[in-house]
Design a protein that fits this description.
globular; about 80 residues; mainly alpha
Length: about 80
């Protein structure tokens, strides 16, 4: 993304998830990338999934901030 290639970044993250489908950091990163690409539903789905894979325990509570700032308060996790 920082190199100006969001599609390439998305492909790299998706490949990472294929290799290690329980990588909470990859879901967090893809959620942030989707947010930057104006794909809010996809972003929120990944933000909701990351904590269940252990992100908050390992990296802190930034996912909660992403959800509060960007995801519908009425939406259920995984139902966006």
């Amino acid at each position: 993304m920082q190199l100006g290639d969001p599609e390439g970044a998305l492909e790299d993250i998706n490949n990472s998830i294929l290799i290690l489908p329980y990588n909470s950091y990859a879901f967090r990163s893809r959620g942030e990338l989707y947010l930057k690409m104006d794909k809010k539903d996809e972003s929120c789905n990944d933000f909701y999934k990351a904590p269940g894979l252990g992100f908050t325990k390992t990296y802190g509570d930034e996912i909660e901030r992403f959800i509060k700032e960007n995801c519908s308060k009425n939406a259920e996790p995984g139902k966006m």
